[in-house]
Amino acid sequence: MKLLESVEQPTPNGSIPSDALLATYNLVVRYGAAVALDGVSMYVGKGEMVALIGPNGAGKSTLLNTLSGINRPAAGKIICNGKLAHVPEGRQLFPELTVEDNLRLGAYRGGSRDPSPMYELFPQLHRLRHRRAGGLSGGEQQMVAIGRALMAHPDIVAVDELSQGLAPIVVSDIANHLVSLNKQNGTAVLLVEQNAQLALDITSRAYVLENGRISKEGRSADLARDPAVHKAYLGGQVSR
Predict the structure, then answer these.
(1) What parts of the chain have a pLDDT lower than 70?
(2) Do residues 145 and 101 make contact, with C-beta atoms less than 8 angstroms apart?
């Protein structure tokens, strides 16, 4: 992805700060005649944790794949003022390689290939470092996928469906690691997640993506109290 100079431009629901690490402006992505993203404008600032929630098929993974250069936008603009690392949906590890080799692949474009910092972040991985990634549990694989992304020393990490297929206690543990990473290192996080409760609990701002468009945005705590968001994604009416 090309790194561009930071600019400030209006979005449909406000403005994007000039120091935003990552931003999209009126982004449009099509699959043939089908429109997957229709004028999406959003941003992640330095050191922020931002959530993107929405139903299946809303375009959440399409947005991350477009930010990472996998998809080509039909219109709009992407601005990235730092290094972005992507933790893809389903982890997408190399199952025949060891944990350590999977981690080292994250630094293939330069930088240190020493995985020691990842073992400090995820101590469980140190004892598993010589195990094949394909033989790990889902939670362990998710730790490897996040660690592999962090080996690139990114300014922002985009995590697609952190909780997918994992037990709640495992999700909570990995989420806590992400929060610690953000607080200690200042690494910005874009969390794309169907588990809206988890996403809104650990982030400061959030966007709701529906039918390829941003339908709501704001502080995570405010969206969690929004009756429409609560009914659609949090299981009922807002507590009074």
Answers:
(1) 1-15, 235-240
(2) no
Query: What is the amino acid identity at position 7?
Result: V
Q: Parallel, antiparallel, or unpaired for β 49-53 and 75-80?
A: unpaired
Strand 34-44 vs strand 205-210: parallel, antiparallel, or unpaired? unpaired
Q: Which of 97, 79, 112, 102 is nearest to 11 (CA)?
A: 79
Q: For position 5, what pLDDT does the model report?
A: 32
Q: Which two tokens stand for residue 51?
A: 């959530």
DSSP-derived 3-state class of residue 155: coil
Closest by Cα among 76, 86, 96 to 9: 76
CB distance 36 to 63 below 8 Å: no
Cβ distance 64 to 160 under 8 Å?
Answer: yes
pLDDT reported for residue 18: 77
Residue indicated by tokens 């020493």: 114
pLDDT at 112: 83
What would the pLDDT profile of 142-165 be if each residue is shown by its tens digit? Answer: 999 999 999 999 999 999 988 888
Strands (E), the chain: 10-11, 14-15, 22-31, 34-44, 49-53, 75-80, 84-87, 156-160, 188-192, 205-210, 213-219
